[in-house]
Design goal:
- The protein is of the alpha+beta class.
- It contains seven helices and 31 strands.
Amino acid sequence: MRALPALPLAKPTAVTAVVMAALAAGLLAVTPASAGAAEVRIHDIQGSTRLSPLAGKAVAGVPGIVTGVRTSGSKGFWFQDPHPDADPATSEGVFVFTSSAPAVAVGDAVTVSGTVDEYIPGGAASGNQSVTEIGKPTVTVVSSGNQLPAATVINSRDVPGTFAPAGDKAAGGSINGLTLKPEKYALDRYESLEGMNVRIGTSRVTGATDSYGELWVTVKPDERPTPRGGTLYNGYASQNTGRLMVQSLAPASAGAFPVANVGDSLTGTTEGPLDYNQFAGTYTVAARQLGAVKAGRTKPEVTRKQKKDELAVATYNVENLDPTDPQSKFDKLAAGIVDHLSSPDIVAIEEVQDNDGAKNDGVVAADVTVGKFIDAIVAAGGPRYQWRSIDPVDLADGGEPGGNIRQGFLYNPDRVGFTSRPGGTATNATGVVRQGGRAALTYSPGRVDPANPAWKDSRKPLAGEFTFRGRKVFLVANHFASKGGDQAIDSQYQPPARSSETERHEQAQAVNTFVRKIRSAQSDAEVVVLGDLNDFEFSGTAKILTGGKALSATAYSLPADERYSYVYEGNSQILDQILVSPAVRDYQLDIVHINAEFADQNSDHDPSVLRFRP
């Protein structure tokens, strides 16, 4: 071990005492021989894989300089050895978990004794990577006010274009035991900097500020940009490697976290330890110093009004709407319908809660919720829509317990007719018959195959039969099972497991079968399948839905960089889709960006509208 020079002092202290303390801590050496054989440095703890070679073992007198202090959440501090080794795979920084507010400050030279742990945010079942840390610590402050180790700059040249190595099959697909190759894989590069002081320069914001005080940027300005400044996610094998979350280490009392939208820039210098976030399961700059937000030009969109002979159908996830929400939410959602969607003829809305919201008391009706929404639309200058839906069985459709979310149809009776065929309930299925040479639903509105196990604890599709200018159009409104339970993009398992797909695949098959029944009764039937499918246009779910050419995904009519309705962890992606049968031609799809890219959201989804001439 090399001899280390004394660290500079900023606070007046007896020099002899400091020198003696530094000698005892291993921060100062008179001769090379003074470094004991059992001396442990931070890079020894981190090792060259994701798991510490010293995990579970006690370490003593580990030296370094404090680079960041966290006083909320998982309390503790980061410290870094100012004298790195020559191995780029071994991080020189590590987190010390103190459990209570740490009694150290940035710039303190400290020695730490404790036990090396591998903490997995979210638990082992999450599949998240672990964070190497020192727990149950004894901390000695040797000196204060020291210069911090120079920050490692993370930029487009520094981060490889390949996201992650393939997991070790013998280890169940885990990458934990693989030697880090920071020059080859982005995840390895970030892991090799875990706990270290890092810096990013001016960066494009790709995920708006959220309620937790965090935003997303990309350090790769040319990586799959959308026209509005986001970063497009367009395939499981084409991950965006430049994305990083940014949080602030400043206490809330120090000032509000900056508000940024997608397309803004975080300018100047952002610097702090590189963390692996315990909630998001992703690499995060825990910033001591935050850059300033420079506003971009991203504005909420407005789609054009449909022409007299065009039918406009839309889908909009209104995010757990219930009567206890403030009137402002109803008003803003209504403005979205009227001002931004230009009052479509039919709107399939998802996540409508019952009349008392997420209160588990057996209430399932949603007439109060919907009535309040329709009134808000009228007040905003829109039509007085009518509503068709079916109340679910209590607690049978997932979502917030007691909320009983469901989807339904709003339609403008001045433009569209609804063919009512009573009898549809939460548990009986609508069928397809042939009447007068044309397809017809036995129940309208009616649920699609509600007894199918694919819909257990999930929203059942709602089918309705409409007429427009003498033409019959079938709509199926959907809200497929969520992605909950899937492993994160940054998972220790590569590729990550997408366990939630199994349910959505079964749901897609049920809807595909229903559409085939309609088309068997009438080959030129005009069918629109729409809603929050919780999956991508390139996914297996979409392929099953479109199987046998029963449907086609209208998303592919858009340029690739415009195919998104949702922003998650800095990735712009599609979750909301509109699919059509072959008889629906010459359509125009518009994904109307009014929510997902903005810190001020009325919903976390953007609505979509499809215009065509039946």
